[in-house]
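Onboarding guide, step 5: your first structure request.
Type a short instruction followed by the sequence, for example:

Predict the 3D structure of this protein.
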Amino acid sequence: MLVVRSQKNENSKPTTINRQQATKMEVLKIATAGSVDDGKSTLIGRLLYDTKSLTTDKLEAIEKTSKQKGYDYLDFSLATDGLVAEREQGITIDVAHIYFSTATKSYIIADTPGHVEYTRNMVTGASTSQAAIILIDARKGVIEQTNRHFFINNLLRIKEVVVAINKMDLVDFSEERYNEIKADFEQLIEKRDYQGQKITFIPVSALKGDNVVNKSANTSWYKGETLLEHLEGLDLAAVSNIGTPRFPVQYVVRPKTENFHDFRGFAGKVYGGELSVGDEVVALPSQTKSKIKEIYFYDKKYETASRRSSVTITLEDEINVSRGDMLVKVDDLPSIEKQFTATISWMDSQDLTLGSKYIVQHGVNKVLAKVDNIHHKINPDYSGIDTDTKVLGMNDIAQVTFKLNKPIFYDAFKDHRTNGSFILIDTQSNSTVGAGFIQ
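The system replies with structure tokens like these:
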């Protein structure tokens, strides 16, 4: 939700704007994780079905395909597995984004693969999410892949994690089995290094619909909310890592028309907190100070721009600001360095090696970087670290130090998810080969 407050009338109500400037709903992004056959795609399909979010043609296709397969039920996984290979194998391979809305909130579900060979896809899908759903098959309980799923959510500082214990219908909706799995997962929680997470356990049957959208009569012993009720009740501000105001300049606006001959504005998106007219700011890297004179959204002026609003800002002073520079409040500067250490998720088939060079894309900026040190590889099953690491292969996660050819303006990922993350680009192929989270 993007909020800007009008400057024309002190008593005017906040105007809510999204990309289409048409909705006032909060948007919650959720990452899902589950091992093969845990029923993750079925759970998402059930959510879409029970919230009446499936289109008529999609529902007809699911009904037709389910009959062709000889099922006496609707195969809701068909609602999300979009690739031919996914439908044929019955597994999720690529990250898919599914959109649906209720009367009070809009949702984007990042349906990510759960198996080890697609770890990079899971990291990609979870990196921008505010909440996560980890599925566990009630028959199998906590397995090695569960460790990996929870580790990645912990690594990415996702504050709200729902552990959906699925397929309860296959264990006769046993409260004892539910409590066993819950106890096993709580042992896993004790290993985490990020304590800012809230963990919620919900017994569900995605296939039958128990406790997904509607309360189940089969779990009278469970007194908590359904999955959708829980998601509906989440406070977006509480589960988001908001950070402090950062305004990377994407474009310098110089209309040079008769009416705006002297106009010079800086267009971009506000990350973190709010920016308001009159705020004293610093332009980085020059560290020249000024004050915000005006805030525009198209041709309208506003007093305040909230986080994630795309606006144009003018300053009281004529200072040198270009694309890639950043405006921040004077009392809240980020780190300005030519070196940093980060946790890297390596995504390429070609290994990362010591001394190799990549382009670091950090927000708007692209900077040439050299791998200065590979400190250790992190085992995402909580089995520890490997300090004898010379190279990183696909799906490896490691702590790496980079040296840059010019400074960037960054925050630690734990403090500011947007300004503390980056991608690595191969200098030859121009492909994205890794994602990083600055320490």
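Each response can be followed by summary notes, for example: The radius of gyration is 24 Å.
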